[in-house]
Amino acid sequence: MEFGKITDDAVEKLRARIGVERKGSAMHRRGPLRLTRNTIRRFAIGSGDDNPLYLKPEYAQASRFGSIIAPPSIVGFMERTNGASDGLPGCHTIWREAAYEWYRPMPVDDVLDSSTYLRRVEVVPSKFGGGRAAVQDYETRIWNQGQEPVANYQTSWHRFERHSAERAGKYKDRELAHYTPEDIERIKADYKKERRRGQEVLWWEDINDGDELPFVVKGPTTQISKFAFESWGGPGGWFVGHRLAFELFEKHPGLPFINEQGIPEAPVAIHWSNERSQKILGLPGAYEAGYERTSWIVHLLMNWIGDDGFLHRLTQRYPTFNLLGDTTWCHGRVTGKDVLDEPIDGKRHAVRCEIWTVNQRGDTTTTGEAVVLLRSRSGQ
User: Fold this and answer.
1) DSSP string, 193-233
2) Cα–Cα distance between 117 and 111 in angstroms, integer?
3) What local confidence, expressed as pLDDT, does residue 370 receive?
4) Which residues in the chain belong to E strands, given as ranges?
5) Do residues 40 and 70 touch, judged by C-beta distance below 8 A?
6) Do you find a cis peptide bond into 52, omega within 30 degrees of 0?
7) Cα distance between residue 164 and residue 311, in whole Å
8) Terminal CA-to-CA distance of the chain, rounded, Å?
9) Of 306, 238, 236, residue with least CA distance to 267
């Protein structure tokens, strides 16, 4: 296979994995994930969400869950492989879409396990940098220690050739964010407007089409906020140093790039270093891959539905990048109501919402839909 190129041979080798169960390393760790109190806390705080259901044992024990629970978005880190590293060595990756479906809460001390399956590989023209691109779709099934299904997680990835990134220039005119003291004061004021429903019940009968969800603001993102999120699971995967880093690069010689000091470095640095992203991808600066946006939108939805609601489905699409320094406002609006044929988490009364995020430039950076389940006054 030709490094950094989407060749017919590389595509066929990748297609041979379609439908094959993958049980290798899951992101930052090997094997199942135990939801310890510390793991849940690190993940919640890393995404800037201090919901007491995740952090305060006394509060959570008095809720319907009877214990601390994990943020629903943590299942995004249970995939065993994805388009960032599976096949097509040396080709870069952009996340196109993610779709989540949850079936039950995840209380502290649950143990999550998973399998991931490649579902589709399609060669398409690259809009990012010209030439060829490949679309890779995956499904991850997640269950707990009792073999009960917990969630299903589907992703779609855009792979493009390494040389095309440097000549793309699609975002060359987009400047990194700059703020005046007055801008920062407005953001701080919006943070103070955040509302968490908590123990107050949101009844299905009280919801109307067009209802706006109270927004949640995130940012301006900094290297510190990026590290807080990226480091929740501890070292592993590409997050290793010293001898372990050199052993990783020896196993995967096409993985690192050579930085300005002549040192091999994992390309994951594009997510917190403006210089790295500019050099490797030709983008204006470092960018958030999509995982954080999931946590932010889950924060929005969990705030709105309160302790008695249940987040059942979430689909996200990523029309543009969130760059380092950007501020993001997460929004939602009710689009309809349904009654499920079968209950999930003991509930059948569903509310459909559109969701979107907007940055300080007014750009829509995420679009999608969500389904939440609420209590009904009918008791059904």
Assistant:
1) T----TTS--BGGG--TTPBPPPEEE----HHHHHHHHTTT
2) 21
3) 98
4) 33-34, 92-102, 111-125, 132-143, 149-160, 216-218, 257-258, 264-265, 287-288, 310-317, 322-323, 328-344, 347-359, 364-374
5) yes
6) no
7) 39
8) 58
9) 238
Burial class from Cβ neighbours inside 10 Å (0-12, 13-18, 19+) for residue 36 reads: middle
Tokens of 197: 């429903």
CA dist 267 and 275 (Å) reads 12
Nearest alpha-carbon partner for 72 in 241, 299, 269? 299
Domains of the chain: residue spans and CATH: 8-374 (3.10.129.10)
Read off the tokens for 346. 């003991």
Could you state, in chain order, the average pLDDT of each consecutive group of 10 residues for the chain (380 residues)?
Answer: 83 96 66 93 96 98 98 95 88 91 98 96 80 93 97 95 61 86 97 97 98 97 89 79 90 82 86 83 83 96 98 96 95 98 96 98 97 90
Nearest to 369 by CA among 353, 346, 348, 349: 353
Question: What is the distance, to the nearest Å, from the Cα of residue 32 to the centroid of all Cα atoms in its chain?
Answer: 19
For tokens 């994805």, the residue is 82
Hey, what are 302's tokens?
């969990």
